Structure formats: structure tokens, C-alpha cells
Amino acid sequence: MNLDQEKLIAAKEAVKYVKNGMTVGLGTGSTAAHMVNELGELVKNGLEIVGVPSSESTKKLATEKGIPLTTLEKANSIDVYIDGADEFDPYMQLIKGGGGALLREKILTYNSELVIIIADSQKEVKRLGDFKLPVETIPFATKKIEQSLQKMGLQPKLRVKNDENFVTDEGNYILDLNIKHITNIPALESRLNQIPGIVETGLFLDMADMIIIGKGENAITLKK
Ligand code: 5RP
Fold first, then answer.
1. What does CATH list as the number for 3-124+205-223?
2. What is the pLDDT, as a whole number, of residue 1?
3. Which of 38, 68, 106, 132, CA to CA, is 20 to 30 A from 48?
């Protein structure tokens, strides 16, 4: 079973939680793209939902798939948010932001009634930190933030795409940090949040209500 199949299995299971009339937060990335495709099919077959996309790329895909969209500002509430993750641990803590959409993703996560994470089996780790932790920073402060994080031993690397600084949908930069040696992740999160100019981190602590993992042919569901 390849990983893309596992992502698809997780996505198919997750959309079962989407019911007529719901406002659905749409995540970003290759796993979330399967979910958007699946919802597109359901909409074609009569499901009535409205989506709130977490990125410009998801907005484009959802539009192509015929899913009616609204904005977070206009949505009264988000019934369910479905998104991928870069890593999750046994306590359902996550690293997200590999695709660079962590800020809007975290805002949608925070504002949703039910948060469902979908993942292939390779995303499961005993301890967070094999994946480099993305933090979103405002360009004005990024050099100084980089120096502070270097002093903290987090080996920040400015994310680059096509030889240019990667720029998020909100016009910010991303620093990817090595947190493998960090044991107290919540304390790290607090420290990072205290640095002016860090807009958000890719640590999604205590935010997932459910993780659906595609494992071989099966979907395994972890609940809070
Ligand atoms: C984007 C994300 C994605 O959910 C995460 O990077 C996982 O991506 P994929 O499903 O392609 O493995 O956080 O910002």
C-alpha cells in the first residue's frame, strides 16, 4: 500500500463526518487535497455545504471541484475542520506547516467545533521533532528572530522556494527549526510565542479532536 493510497483512505473516512448544511474548514496539502476532491464528488451528488479554505491553493482546488466557498469573516461558525499534518504523536500533538499554510490553518483549527486530522501511517511518531518545526515570521523581524533562535540552539533555516524566500499567503516568511532535542514542547511553544515578530508556530498542541490514519487498507481513528 503506498502512502498516497493511505492518505486517500483517511480522507474518505473523514468526509463521512460532513453532513448537509455544514460549514467545513478545508485544510492544505496533499492529504487535504484528497479530502477536497472527495467533498467535490459529494457536492456533485447533492451534498450542500460551504467551505472555508485555509490557503489560496486550497481555494483554487475547491473552486475547481465546485465546492461553494465563504470566508472565515462571513461564516457564522465552522462545524468541522479537516486537514493533514506533518507529524503526530501518541498524545495527538501535531507539527503542521510543511506546506506553509500554518497560520490560517491554526486560525481555522481554533475556530472549529470539530477538528479532524487525516494522515498516512508515516506521520505517526513517538516524539515530535523528526520534522523541522515551521514558524511564520514577519519579514521586518525575520533576521533578528533567526539570530535569537540560533542562540536557543534551534538551528533556524529560512525557507526558500525557487531560489527566493518562501512567502506565505499572509505575506510572511517561514523559519524551519530543529526541535529534535527539545523535551518540553509546551514550554518551547510559550517561549517562541514570546518573541516579537513570530506570528505563529506549527505546533498544534491539544487542538485535534480526532486523527484518522490510513494504515494499509484500513482507516484507524484516534479520539481525544
Ligand atoms: C500545510 C500542512 C499540511 O497539512 C502538512 O504539511 C501535511 O501535508 P501533506 O498532506 O502533503 O503530507 O500543514 O501547511
1. 3.40.50.1360
2. 65
3. 106
CA of residue 20 to ligand 1 center, whole Å: 26
**Cα–Cα distances in angstroms (integers) from residue 209 to residues 43, 71, 80, 83, 112, in the given order:** 25, 23, 10, 12, 10
- Cα–Cα dist 119/27, whole Å: 12
pLDDT more than 70, % of the chain: 100
What is the distance between the alpha carbons of residues 13 and 219, in angstroms, rounded to a whole number? 7
Could you tell me which residues come within 8 angstroms of residue 141 by beta carbon, excluding any fewer than 6 positions away?
196, 197
Q: Is 87 a catalytic residue?
A: no
Of 170, 148, 161, 147, the closest CA to residue 72 belongs to: 170
Fold of 133-199: Alpha-Beta Plaits (3.30.70)
Give start-end residues of each CATH 3.40.50.1360 domain in the chain.
Answer: 3-124+205-223
Integer Cα distance of 109 and 5 in angstroms: 25
55-66 residue pLDDT tens: 999 999 999 999
Give me 147's grid cell.
539570530
pLDDT at residue 76, as a whole number: 85
| Residue to substitute in 5, 6, 28 for testing ligand 1 pocket (most ligand atoms within 8 angstroms of CB) | 28
DSSP H or E run through 13: helix 3-14
Q: Are 83 and 117 in contact (CB under 8 A)?
A: yes
Convert the pLDDT of each residue in 42-54 to its tens digit. 999 999 999 999 9
What's the whole-model pTM score? 0.97
